[in-house]
Amino acid sequence: MELNKRKKNLLIKYIVIGVLCLALGFGSGYLVFHNSDASAEDKTNMTVVDEVVELLNNNWLDTTDSKTSIQDRMIAGLVDGLGDSHSSYMSTQENKEFNSDINGNYSGIGVYFSPVHSGALLTGIIEGSSAEKAGLKAGDIITDADNKSLSGMTSTEMQEYIKGNEGTEVSLKIKRLQQTLSVKAVRNNFSSDVTYYVGTTTNKIYGYVNISTFGDTTAQHVEKALKEFKKQNVSDIILDLRGNGGGYITAARDLLSLFNEKGETLFTVKNKKGQTETYKDNSKTHYAFSNGYILMNSGTASASELCAGTFKEIQGYKLIGQQSYGKGTIQAQTNLSDGSVLKYTYAKWYTPKGVNINKKGWTPDVAVEDQSLLSAYFTYYSDKFYVDNVNNSIIVMEKLLDVLGYNPGRTDGYFSQGVSDALKRFEQDHGLTVDGVLEYSDQECMVSVLAERLSHKEYDNSLQKVLTLI
C-alpha cells in the first residue's frame, strides 16, 4: 500500500513538472526538450560544427515547408554568417543561372526588366528581338505570362515564366499606362552582354558600346564593335558601364587587352597571404582612339570599376556620371562534389598605379545628376498619403515628379499643397484618378513613364553630357 502511494506521488510529481514545463514553454515562446549530451567517444575527431550538423540532420523537425534541402540551407547559413555579401553558396541550378546571367546568354523574348508590384516593368528592348517585333516598349509592364499573374513575384520567379526553350511561344498581357494589350512572342537565344552603334556630333564620329556584364565572350563581342568603329573612322569612344555589376576577372583582362600594348600591366591581384599576381595584356590587338569616356553610376561595380580605373590611368579616359559602387574584391568559385558551388572572397584587385577602391568607388571626373531608375522607385506600399503627411514614399514621389518635369517644389518628404497640385497634373496627363492623393498606382505609373523616357538618347543626361565634350 505504501509502495503504491509512493508511486502515485511520483506520478503526480512528474505530471506537475510536465505541466510546469509546458506552461513555461508557452509563456516564454518555446518548449525545450533536454537531450543527453553526446558521449566523449562519439565526439572523437568531431568539431563543434560537425556536432551541430549531426544533431540537426538527425533530430531537427522541419516545419518550414521549404523545398530546399537541410544541407543546402545549413551551408548557405554558414556562408551568410561570414558577413560578406559577396560570398555565397549556390545549388547546382542556382550556379547554372548565375553563370548564364554573367555571360549574358539566355533563351527569351529579348527584354530587360525590373519587378514592380503589377509585374515585370520593361526597362529595355533588345534590337531585332521578338519583343521588339511584337511591339513591346520600355515602360510596358508584363502583368501575365501564359495566363500566370506575375504580380508580387521576384525577378527570378518572373524569369521562370518569361524565359523558356528556344522556339516556344509565350502569351503576354501588357499594361501600357491605362491600356491593356495582349501579344504573343517567340523565345529565341540571345547574347545580351554587348550592344553598340556609331553616331556623329559636331563633325566627329563616335562609337558607343554598352557592356552589361563581363562574361566569357564579352571581349569578342566588344572587338566586333571596335572593328566596325575602325571601318567608319571613329575618333572617340564611349563605354557605358552603368548598371554593370562585374563578372569574370579574366573577361576584364581580355577587354583591357584590346586597348593596350602586349605585355603591359593591366592590374594586380593580392590574396590573404600577401601573394601578388600580375595580369598583363595577352593579345596582339591594340585599338586606339583620340578620346574615351566611361559612363558609370552606383551600379557600376567590381570588374567594371577595375576596367574604369585602368582606362583612366593608362588611356586617360574620363569618368562621367555618378560615384561607382566600390567593390575592389575578387571572388573564387569552387565546384563541390555534388555540383553545387561555393563563391567566396579571396583577394583584392589593384589598378596599374596600385589603387584599390573597395567601399569607396570611383569619383567621376565629370559629375552628372542621376536620372536612372533607382531601386527606391520599385518599393511597394499599400498606404495612401495626403497633404501634411511626411514619409519616405513621399520623397520618392517628389523626386519622380521633379525628374518628369512636374516641379513639385521640394523633395524632402513633406506632402505640401504644391506637391499635391503637381501630383494632380501628372494624374490628369496620364488618365489616373485626379485627387492629389499619393497611392502606389501613381508611383508605378511614374516609373513606367520614366522608363519609357530613358529609352530615348535625348533624355540620357550622362550621354548628352559626353556628346558636348566630344
Concise synopsis of the structure shown:
This protein has 470 residues and is an alpha+beta fold.
Largest sheet: 6 strands, antiparallel
What's the level 1 CATH class of the largest domain?
Alpha Beta
* Shape estimate: globular
Gyration radius, in Å: 28 Å
Which stretches of 5+ consecutive residues score pLDDT under 50? 1-36
CATH topology-level fold name of the largest domain: 2-enoyl-CoA Hydratase, Chain A, domain 1
Helical content class: 25-40%
Q: Quickly count the helices.
A: 13
Mean pLDDT across all amino acids? 88
Structural domain tally: 4
Question: Could you tell me the strand content as a percent range?
Answer: 15-25%
How many angstroms does the end-to-end distance come to?
107 Å
CATH architecture of the largest domain: Alpha-Beta Complex
Number of strands: 19
According to CATH, the homologous superfamily of the largest domain is 2-enoyl-CoA Hydratase, Chain A, domain 1
What class do helices, strands and sheet pairing give?
Answer: alpha+beta
Helices and strands in order:
Blueprint: H1 2-28, H2 48-59, H3 70-80, E1 88-90, H4 92-103, E2 105-108, E3 111-116, E4 119-125, H5 130-133, E5 141-145, E6 148-149, H6 155-162, E7 169-176, E8 179-186, E9 188-191, E10 194-201, E11 204-211, H7 218-231, E12 236-240, H8 249-257, E13 265-271, E14 276-280, E15 291-296, H9 303-315, E16 318-321, E17 329-335, E18 341-350, E19 366-367, H10 392-403, H11 417-429, H12 440-454, H13 461-469
Parallel strand pairs: 11-12, 12-15, 15-16, 16-19
Antiparallel strand pairs: 1-18, 2-9, 3-4, 4-5, 5-6, 5-7, 7-8, 10-11, 13-14, 13-18, 17-18
